[in-house]
Amino acid sequence: MTEMPSSPTQTRRFLMVHGVQHRRPRQHWLWWLAEALRQRGEQVLYPQFPAPEQPSVSAWTDLLHAELAQLGDQERVVVCHSLGCALWLRAAQTLPEDLRVTRVLLVSPLGDQAFTVANRNEEFKLEHIDRELLAAASAKPPHAVVSATDPYAPADPRAWSAALGMDCDVLPAAGHITPADGYGPWPAALAWCLREQAPVSAVTGP
């Protein structure tokens, strides 16, 4: 694999947005990605969202807004996983202009069937996502990464993404893209963060 650039940059900041029941475990690819970026001199925010076992739309949106404000005036890159994707899609509908970002990576976005009382996330379900409002929330269209074997994903990830004006990489057999599925270290996500043109499907596993 090509060596990633190691020189630090002060022209961008990254924000990691996790999902339900997530308490920043060290074995998760989000932790690995945050550390890999920091080792290269990048500035990374990886906040713990409150009560991840009983997430609240209002509490999570408030913290998302606060963290976005900390990204400053440089390039702003947001990486979301699972319920974090739903949070972004919801927040994008009403995102203040001063909190808009440059790039967004949505990993394992949730389909309608994933929002249930049992999953403790039903409050995050959106009946409609406004494509124009979503586009306005970031300078470039969000990029989705979905696994073909994810039971929580939209039924047709490519059609779902296209309807929202997003590109989509479909990994063949990555489950919900969690440590249990082998994601841990994920060089392709790092490559996307450092070089936006790199497809996240370039590496289909850890």
Quick tags:
globular; alpha/beta; 6-stranded parallel beta sheet; disordered N terminus; Rossmann fold; 206 residues
N-C termini distance:
12 Å
State the share of residues found in helices, binned by percent: 25-40%
Q: Please report the first level of CATH classification, the CATH class.
A: Alpha Beta
Helices and strands, in order, run as EHEHEHEHEHEH
Strand content is 15-25%
Mean pLDDT: 91
Please give the largest β-sheet: 6 strands, parallel
> Can you identify the CATH superfamily?
Alpha/Beta hydrolase fold, catalytic domain
Indicate how many domains the architecture comprises.
1
Task: Describe the protein.
It is built from six helices and six strands, in the order βαβαβαβαβαβα. By secondary structure, the protein is an alpha/beta fold. It is globular. Strands 2-1-3-4-5-6 form a six-stranded parallel β-sheet, with helices on both faces. The protein has one domain (15-197): Alpha/Beta hydrolase fold, catalytic domain (Rossmann fold). The chain has helices at residues 29-39, 57-69, 83-91, 131-136, 157-163, 187-194, and strands at residues 12-17, 43-45, 75-81, 103-107, 143-147, 167-171. β5 (143-147), α5 and β6 form a beta-alpha-beta unit. Helices cover 26% and strands 15% of the residues.
Short overview:
This protein has 206 residues and is of the alpha/beta class. The protein has helices at 29-39, 57-69, 83-91, 131-136, 157-163, 187-194, and strands at 12-17, 43-45, 75-81, 103-107, 143-147, 167-171.
